[in-house]
Amino acid sequence: MRKEVIKPVKAIRIFGRSVRDAFKSVIRNFSLSMASILCVTITLIIMSVSIIVACNIKEATKTIEDEMHIIVYMKSDATDEDKDNLEAEIKNTENVREFEYISKESQKQSMEEYDELFKTLLDYLDTNPLLSSFIVYVDDIKDMDDTAKELEKLPNVETVKYGEQTVGEVVDAFDIIEKVTLGVVIAMLLVTIFLISNTIKLTIFSRRSEIEIMRLVGASNTAIRLPFLFEGLIIGIIGSIIPVFVTIYGYVILNNAMNGRIFTELLKLIEPYNFVFYVSAVLVGIGALVGMLSSAHSVRRYLKI
Amino acid sequence: MKFIEFKNVTKTYGNGITACADVSVEINKGEFVFVIGLTASGKSTFVKMLYREEKPTKGTVNVGGVNVGALRNRKVYKFRRKVGVVFQDFKLLPQLTAYENVAYALECVGMKAKDIRPKVLDALERVGLKDKVRSFPDELSGGEQQRVCIARAIVNSPKLLICDEPTGNLDPKTSKEIMDVISSINKDLGTTVIMATHDKEIVNRMKKRVLVINNGMLVGDYEKGSYKASESN
Fold it and tell me: From the CA of B162, how many Å to the nearest CA of chain A?
């Protein structure tokens, strides 16, 4: 048989026809398409909720983690030069994100402002009994213990304070929370992929005779697969329209209703814009990709490759 | 001129049934050949091996210079474009109109739309369906659906037209009309036609070469018009 080379023009023509046939097929197999679209819609809404919850948990734990710090107290007899040296040393310590210096004077002042009792007490003393300190924030709280020990070894450090016990517990708790939410999101993703691909598999199963006929009249495997690929893409994209609106409006409304926080001022909800758009993009991406891949995959079975 | 050649072809299915046993036969270009036999005699398998729906277990099937059995699955489509197949159950795409069904065979080759149109209309006119181009298969009668199927099979101008019980689901009057269409294609276009059937009346009337298959074996090869169905059974 003469070897047939598919010319680019032909390829474009076949491509264009595949897109047209995909739209035609979505419309003419309306009830089946609708079933797939609804399945995509429902699973993506669930997906959206789990993504939003997971992101907010992640954000909340990050806020709390960011608040945790080490206080490095400087010896009372340290000079200004010592202070500058220590500052440089802290700067060079691993895992240090940022730090701020609080002199004993400003410490005294803020304590006096905090309570009258402190003021009277401190006024009794001739000298300021407080110590100047550095408040050190770390990159990774899991390594806070080590960092604190490092800091303690530095010259002119009187003592280092941080909630040893609490830090350990918080780290453990957040670790679990993070793993659980990640697990839930992955599980939801798998369920989404499974449900969507199963529904699309069913619609393609009901059309296996169609594939057989395409083969019989001499359609190449690519020419058979392309329209189904686009059909899956169209179903995925149409199916993600409602979830996108639910995500955008739902989250904005929720945010307004809760004044942008979770029960306390400490934990804030993620700002709705651009967050909702990112989530929407992820949803459309999942819908389109899963729709496309699962239909291409289901067709493959009937192609006898 | 030799066009189709079966050489010691044996086909055994996975369940151990031998549907074709050591069949050797030659068919010339432009011939009209009936393949007859009882149900489960193996005539369907014989026909299916012609368009590579089944592969021979042993031996070779050669169609127009192509060793059909040796074709790789992914290469089959190129061969299929050179043969037309008509089925008992029509196998039309239900969501496409008559026109689209016929056009599909050309579209998947990547032909230009303006080249497709005259060819499709030509094919539909040949089978006498020019006024039903916009009908969907379920709006057409059985005979009309079979005409669409024939139009689709010949739109590519194939050298070989394979018909697997094309009149099996049709009444005698419609069957006769369909046979007229097929025989005109054979006569006017010079297309080689191979038709599996168990309709004795048609075979007797047409007076063509007849291959008789029984239990997977070729038990008779009758020249034009020499076969009488009443004699053998």
Answer: 12
pLDDT digits (tens, 9 = 90+) for B3-15: 999 899 999 888 8
Coil, strand, or helix at residue B64? coil
C-alpha span between B127 and B177 (Å, rounded): 10
Write the DSSP assignment of A280-292 as a string of letters: HHHHHHHHHHHHH
Q: Give how far Cα A249 sits from Cα of A6, A151, A244, A281, A282, Å.
A: 48, 48, 9, 15, 16
CB A86 within 8 A of CB A134: yes
Task: Check if the beta carbon of residue A187 is closer than 8 Å to that of residue B48.
Answer: no
- Of the candidates B65, B80, B95, which has its C-beta nearest A218's C-beta? B80
Residues of B in contact with A19 (CB under 8 A): none
Q: How many CA atoms lie within 13 A of B86 on its CB side?
A: 34
Listing DSSP states for A219-282 in one string gives --HHHHHHHHHHHHHHHHHHHTHHHHHHHHHHHHHHHHHTTTBSSSTTSBPPPHHHHHHHHHHH
Using pLDDT thresholds of 50, 70 and 90, give the confidence band for residue A5: low
Single out the residue of B139, B12, B6 nearest to residue B67, CA to CA. Answer: B6
Q: Measured between CB atoms, does B123 come within 8 Å of chain A?
A: no
Tell me the two tokens of residue B211.
């291959």
> CA-CA distance, B206 to B225, in Å (whole number)?
8
- Each residue's pLDDT tens digit, A225-270: 888 889 889 989 999 999 999 999 998 898 888 877 777 766 778 8
Write down the pTM of the prediction.
0.71
Phi, psi of B11 (to 5 degrees): -130, 120
| Cβ neighbourhood burial of A71 (10 Å; 0-12, 13-18, 19+) | middle
Of these ranges, A59-63, A155-159, B3-7, B197-201, the one predicted with the greatest mean pLDDT is B3-7
Please answer yes or no on whether A215 and B77 come within 8 Å at the CB atom. Answer: yes
| Amino acid identity at A260 | G
User: Under an 8 A CB cutoff, do B85 and A304 touch?
Assistant: no
Asked if A213's CB is within 8 angstroms of B92's CB, the reply is yes
Q: How confident is the model at residue A305 (pLDDT cuts 50, 70, 90)?
A: low
Total Cβ atoms within 10 A of residue A182: 13
SS (H, E, C) A168-200: HHHHHHHHHHHHHHHHHHHHHHHHHHHHHHHHH
The answer to whether the CB atoms of B77 and A220 lie below 8 A apart is yes
Please state which CATH number belongs to domain A69-161: 3.30.70.3040
Assess B159–A contact: CB distance below 8 Å, yes or no: no
Comparing C-alpha atoms, which of B142, B163, B147 is closest to residue B43?
B163
Q: Which residue type is seen at B190?
A: G
- Return the domain boundaries, chain A: 8-64+171-303, 69-161
The DSSP letter of residue B59 is E
